[in-house]
Amino acid sequence: MTLTAQKAPTEGVISHIRGRALWMRRTALQMVHRKGLGHIGGDFSATDILATLYFGVLRYDPQRPDWDGRDRFVMSKGHATGALYTALAAAGFFPEDMLQTYMQPESKLNGHPNRNYLPGVEANTGPLGHGFPIAVGIAIAAKLSDASFNTYVLTGDGEQQEGSNWEAAMVAAHHKLDNLTLIIDRNHLQQGTRTSETTALDPLDEKYRAFGWDVVDADGHDPVSLLDALDPSTRDGRPRCVIAHTIKGKGVSFMEDKAKWHHGVPSDDEYAIAMQELA
């Protein structure tokens, strides 16, 4: 089944996105707890963004993952595979029971996504600052070939400290890539501390505007806000930057806004509490 963007989302669409997001959080938590590895905090800050993309925005056909008309999505914050893999499974790219093999020996579900192993993965990512330039290249290729698909890329906010992102931002604006949307998961935390304590980013919106981008803010946990910000029909001839305001560890009280959950793994007791909160 091919999905298309919803210009006027119904309550049913919004409810479906929220239901998928809840399932994704619970399943990602199970995966990380089972393996004892992962990045659950960043998974949870990105979950609602991915659920909105896959169930309200992106055009794709999981039965034809290489369909030329599909929208492209690049997961630049490649460590958040718990969120990405659950989204791909929920969208039908591979069976949900494959999620049980997460990061197991010889599993196709690596700690970072690999397009050679999984349908629906557009680019191998993991080293931060790589996915955004790749997405710019994809968007340029679409322009050169008169293709109608749109390209979306999700980065972390700590990732914005990488210089390669700003080179990509300049190139995208120069080529007027109105078929490109950058989404920044703005949870204000990165490995070990707050982004403001590592290299301050603000005013992030003014920086992208100075680079020639159309910038909009969105509540990164509200599908209605995200759908409005991601609507391709509202483009004005420039690439769009969506600053999605999120909370690391969203949905679990003791994880929310805590740097330790960048790559923390819940104990058995913490897992039980978290699953109750995500009921």
Helix content: 25-40%
The biggest beta sheet is recorded as: 5 strands, parallel
Radius of gyration: 17 Å
Instruction: Give the helix/strand class.
Output: alpha/beta
N/C terminus separation: 29 Å
Mass-distribution shape: globular
- Helix and strand succession? HHEHHEHEEEHHEHEH
Number of strands: 7
- Please identify which CATH superfamily we are dealing with: Thiamin diphosphate (ThDP)-binding fold, Pyr/PP domains
| Number of distinct helices | 9
Kindly provide the name of the CATH class. Answer: Alpha Beta
CATH architecture: 3-Layer(aba) Sandwich
Sequence of strands across the biggest β-sheet:
1-2-3-7-6
Overall number of domains: 1
- Average pLDDT confidence is 96
Provide an overview of this structure.
This protein is α/β, with parallel strands linked by helices and 279 residues long. The protein has one domain: Rossmann fold, CATH 3.40.50. It is 39% helix and 12% strand. The chain is built from nine helices and seven strands. The protein has helices spanning 11-35, 40-57, 81-90, 131-144, 163-174, 195-198, 204-210, 223-230, 268-277; strands spanning 72-75, 151-156, 180-186, 189-190, 193-194, 214-219, 240-245. The protein has a five-stranded parallel β-sheet, with helices on both faces. Strands 4-5 form a two-stranded antiparallel ribbon. Helix 1 (11-35) packs across helix 3 and helix 1 (11-35) runs antiparallel to helix 9. It is globular, with a radius of gyration of 17 Å. The two termini are 29 Å apart. 48% of the residues are buried.
